[in-house]
Amino acid sequence: MTDDLHYLSLHEAAACIADRSLSPVTLVDACIARCTALQPTHHAFITLTFEAARAAARVAQQEIAAGRYRGPLHGIPIAHKDILLTAGVRTTAHSRLLQDWVPDRDAVAVQLLDQAGAISLGKTACHEFAFGTPDVDEPFPAARNPWNTAHMPGSSSSGSGVAVAAGMVMAATGTDTGGSVRHPAAACGIVGMKPTYGRVSLEGVIPLAPSLDHVGPLTRTVRDNALMLQALAGQGAPDFSVRLGSPVRGMRIGVPGRFIATVDHTAEVSAAFDRALALLQDLGVALVNIDPEGLDAAFDAANLIIAYEAAQYHHDDLQRQPEKFGPALRQRLMRGAALSDADYAAARARAAELKQTYAALFADGLDAIASPGREAPAETMEQLYANPAGKRGITNRIYSLTGSPAITLSMGFSATGLPLAIQLAAAHGAEPLLYQLADAYECSAGWSKLHP
């Protein structure tokens, strides 16, 4: 067992808790110490719940001692993105509008993780209502990248990505509408899964764009991610870990080369992606060049749908108290409110066409599709403040529209020590295959062993 308990993988910590060589109390205390040390510089959390976490750890320890072990999340420290409702714990959506709101119920995702025995250390920072951008005048400090705190950590599940990568918790929830689990995973060098649309309940999650919203887990390893999704998906879900460790030889992986070439990736990202593809080939995977129709329009179609649906949800508050919204979010909502029903219908039609196109690709024998997970290493916070509307996460939007499961994980580091990422996607319901492939890559590449 490592001396740095906070950097145990979730599955390693679970094994130690199960054989009673590590107590939940000790593990939670180690993560609380880590949070206390890093929160002043990393700003991963909005609300910390240490006393409740310590009490839950004592209960977990008593249950395990009495033979009532609930499974691999029992006693594991986690955190929740601050747009998931938590009964009795402030839920702000990182906005002045909800700055002091305390819900009286939990999101279903929170309930399921509680039932699995996970222990929340608090609510993590995000972009305002998962749609704004950091601002120097926002009510809570913006989260900072743990590899270099002068840089941004990805959006919008920013604090969740930071908390996991920095060892403040072992896993966290996030939400993903246009890439907001996968983007911080890419920027922070961890694993983020956007499951199949509808796989995880959205009940009790503050909406951004309901037709594209997903809840997904952020973890430090693929194996850990599968364990988190198992709890989040609830009863009746398939075994997401069943294929872990199985050979991937013979899998066929599509690479949309023409489209990837149209995206403004840095030379470091392109070179790292080429190396990642070569490693997959070494594992016996066959690469297939593909050129699906509709990719060039996917980014704009997804952004239009998000803006239109977000404006619908926030309409009344935007009319009554616009000053409660940050300037970036207010402008985005106003642009969304100006969109016509015809604009929205056209974007939804493009999404439906893309979904059919990708379903056909998978039906024709592709097992997965690979692309870079982000265009460049994480920008500085100053660059983000200066250009909040810059194009980021272009390849992420494809799977927001198709609803396909997509996972992002590390494929190396820039010359300045910032993470680079690969994204893998598969057919609806194919999370077990996707975890199998991502785990095989992760174990061969070794990047998950490195920490800030």
Structural class: alpha/beta
* Percent helix: 40-55%
Instruction: Give the radius of gyration.
Output: 20 Å
Strand content: 5-15%
List the secondary-structure elements in sequence, H or E. HHEHEHEHEHEEHEHHEHHHEHHEEH
Indicate the CATH class of the largest domain.
Answer: Alpha Beta
Walk me through the structure.
With 452 residues, this protein is an alpha/beta fold. It has two domains: 8-233, Amidase signature (AS) enzymes (Alpha-Beta Complex), CATH 3.90.1300.10; 252-449, Amidase signature (AS) enzymes (Alpha-Beta Complex), CATH 3.90.1300. 42% of the residues lie in helices and 13% in strands. The chain has 15 helices and eleven strands. The chain has an eleven-stranded mixed beta sheet, with helices on both faces.
